[in-house]
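Review form for a predicted model. The reviewer records the input and the model, then writes brief findings.
Reviewer: anonymous (R2)
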Amino acid sequence: MTQTLSAPTRPTLEVAVIMQRLANTGPGARWQPWRWELADVVMHEPGFGSTPRLLYENESTQRWLHGGLKVELFKDDAEGYYLNATTDVPSWFVLWRMEDEASVADEPIAIPLIATLSYYDAGRWLDAQETVEQVPAPAPVLQWLCAFVDEHYVVEPKKRKRPDSFKSLKDRFGNPVSISTEKQFGGGAGGKGGQGRQGGPHG
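Model under review:
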């Protein structure tokens, strides 16, 4: 994996995105015979060029290579990278759109516009009703991402909140009251569940 740096010191990877067109099956295929999806993200190589290129085709599948996309890491988005790196499956996130008119094929194809490793980027794109898909990032990319996170992101320690059960209880007149530790049947206070982080391409 080759790492290049853009001015002044922003870590950058150049990648290529592989999109695939698959034949639909079932009754719905009558109205929509094909569907597009993200197939993979790989390291860019000079021979790939920047023009979409058909890699493979048969009766049910087309695979297109789109080279020359840059993935940059920004210090102010370190938390977004941290959230991705600490998921079960750290991933590439790719925003893609369909062409309005065919340019390199007989019909419009799916064009990847942006690739990122930021959980927040993916969330913003989804909020904007864009098409965003994800594929797992390989170990070398994850190591590169984690090195950046370790350098630029500090996890804020959670402040310990004193449990309500240890607070002094008073009645409506301000006088101390006592409580029983015996189990009360037919009721009881329900616990508050933790709130998960904002939803995204990982799930």
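Findings: The chain is about 15% helix and 30% strand.
Further findings: Confidence is low (pLDDT under 50) at residues 165-169, 177-200.
Recommendation: see findings above.
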